[in-house]
Design a protein that fits this description.
Radius of gyration: 27 Å
Shape: globular
Number of domains: 3
Number of helices: 13
CATH topology of the largest domain: Spore Coat Polysaccharide Biosynthesis Protein SpsA, Chain A
Largest sheet: 9 strands, mixed
Number of strands: 29
Structural class: alpha+beta
Helix content: 10-25%
CATH class of the largest domain: Alpha Beta
């Protein structure tokens, strides 16, 4: 006898039912979901249901729930066993009158944000969102002292793209913060304009993960009044000093997952705008799996199937200090929670995974940046050549807090060598009281894209002391290219590096140093270590 079961309901993006195998009642049955005879996904029938237990259907742990996108216009939902047999009541036919009406694919996208002293970042932020399909920007300038709003107003190329509203403290009541007051002020005009409203901060970047633009992403959710995307929180990546010339998305690549969201809502469906999600005139915002947003701010669990919000919360330590000192935009000035404690930096300095989701939009963003902000584009290009200017920053070892699979060996070793410090009879010594220079060469013979060149320092005495140092320096090495004539020059010609490392935070002792290249699915390392003594 094969597995049997029942398709109970299809509603609110969820397919619910049960399945079990009477001959092998302890086995968990896997079911397969089909939308108009196209495979949509699978689910395990292992959820506990008291009604099944009461009906003597095994131990009652045979329920399933499939949560996924059910596009508008879907007519039938089928659920089958692995043998291809339909459960009872499958196929389930959706009634046309119950389907939500399809909204227009794209009727304008406006980004609403409040900014204070964001001049080093706002031009890259505008260029990125323009590159992914945003039509207009409404920026409330909250008494900036660095010319954030003035710079945007003076740019003639932004006349029909960016609207700047002065927002000094005299414009809102002293008992509330500038952010909620700005949102309330903006809502009537946004609703007259219509379309989609994206509410984010200047340190947040919307990143479509499976589509070529934000309009394409929103077309997947034409029936929902508000879509909420989860944060991906980016840490300092070990940076201590600020570097206003390099792009934010180039400096910070280490991130962690989060349930907090930011939302994109239809203007006509908004009753009031919230920091994370709006209050709607009917219904509630949903995440990309069409799950309701809990408490107006968080998804049930992190999800990154269709999109994410890159949240560059902390940046470098120097930039964090500036952010901390200018206070938060939500609470009223002087309120107990107006000034962030330094514990927020530690809590948000994530380095669990290396995220390149935004990189595929980088060429398009650079073209927009050159068109709208040629000075900023020129600085970014100059900063990307060779090593950083002397004294700009020192690389900082980051404790290895990555998922284990990120550092597991992948196919094939890489080739590399430390020229400085030079190998000697004993361990090379690096001073801990001042920045130390490390130089050499490193390349991946296979030329795999997306690699991140890295120095790894592991304590010879304490396995818990394991540090990574990102190599963000490409230097010409003609000698290396000549030494490997069988490899393409694109792999070997710029394989050199020369970095300065700040070791003051590292415990003194003996370390094993190894060069490697990290990828999304693992890492490739040199086959031998160098022994280094710190301190």
């Amino acid at each position: 006898m094969t597995a049997t079961g029942h398709l109970d309901s299809v509603a609110d993006g969820r397919v619910v039912g049960w399945a079990w195998d009477p001959e092998r009642p302890q086995r968990t049955v896997e079911v397969f979901v089909w939308l108009d005879d196209r495979f949509a996904g699978r689910a395990l029938a292992n959820r506990e249901r008291t009604d099944l237990k009461a009906a003597a259907i095994g131990d009652g742990r045979h329920g399933f729930q499939f949560t996924g996108a059910i596009p508008p216009g879907t007519r039938t939902v089928r659920v089958t066993t692995a043998a291809g047999e339909d459960l009872r009541r499958s196929p389930f036919r959706l009634q046309a009158e119950l389907l939500p009406p399809a909204a227009p694919d794209h009727d304008g996208i406006t980004v609403l944000a409040i900014a204070r002293d964001e001049a080093p970042y706002i031009e890259e932020w505008i260029a990125h969102h323009r590159a992914i399909g945003v039509d207009r920007f409404l920026i409330y300038d909250n008494a900036s002292t660095d010319g954030t709003g003035d710079r945007l107003r003076r740019n003639p190329t932004l006349a029909d793209l960016v609207e700047v509203v002065d927002w000094p403290s005299s414009r809102y009541a002293p008992t509330i913060g500038p952010q909620p007051a700005a949102y309330a002020d903006a809502l009537p005009a946004l609703q007259r304009r219509g379309g989609w409203i994206v509410v984010i901060d200047i340190d947040e970047f919307v990143v479509p993960l499976a589509d070529d633009s934000l309009p394409d992403l929103l077309a997947r959710f034409r029936e929902v009044p508000a879509l909420s995307l989860c944060w991906k929180v980016f840490g300092s990546s070990g940076h201590v000093a600020r570097d206003d010339d390099r792009l934010v998305q180039d400096r910070f690549r280490f991130a962690g997952r989060a349930t907090l969201v930011k939302s994109i809502a239809r203007a006509g469906a908004i009753q009031s705008i919230g920091c994370h999600a709006p209050l709607l005139t009917g219904g509630s915002p949903v995440d990309e799996l069409r799950r309701p947003i809990a408490n107006g701010s968080a998804a049930p669990s992190p999800s990154y199937r269709w999109g994410q919000i890159n949240h560059y919360f902390a940046k470098s330590w120097a930039e964090w200090e500036a952010k901390r000192d200018r206070g938060r935009a939500g609470p009223a000035a002087g309120a107990p929670n107006w000034r962030r404690p330094d514990s927020h930096f530690a809590a948000m300095d994530h380095a669990h995974e290396y995220d390149l989701g935004i990189v595929r939009f980088r060429p398009r963003m650079l073209r927009v940046l050159a068109d709208l902000f040629p000075d900023r584009a020129a600085r970014a290009r100059a900063a990307g050549r060779g090593s950083p200017r002397p004294g700009t920053r020192s690389a900082v070892p980051v404790p290895t807090r990555l998922h284990p699979e990120t550092l597991r060996p992948s196919a094939g070793p890489v080739r590399g060598h430390f020229d400085v410090p030079a190998r000697s009879a004993g361990p090379a010594r690096l001073p801990a009281e001042r920045p130390a220079r490390v130089a050499g060469w490193l390349f991946d013979p296979a030329g795999r894209p997306g690699g991140r060149r890295t120095i790894r320092l592991r304590s010879a005495d304490d396995a818990a002391l394991d540090y990574l140092i990102a190599i963000e320096d490409d230097r010409p090495r003609a000698d290396v290219a000549r030494h490997f004539p069988g490899l393409p020059e694109r792999i070997t010609a710029n394989s050199g590096f020369d970095v300065t490392i700040d070791l003051r935070a590292m415990p003194h002792g003996l370390y094993r140093a190894r060069l490697g290249v990290r990828f999304a699915d693992g890492a490739a390392w040199t086959t031998h270590d160098w022994t280094i003594r710190i301190g």
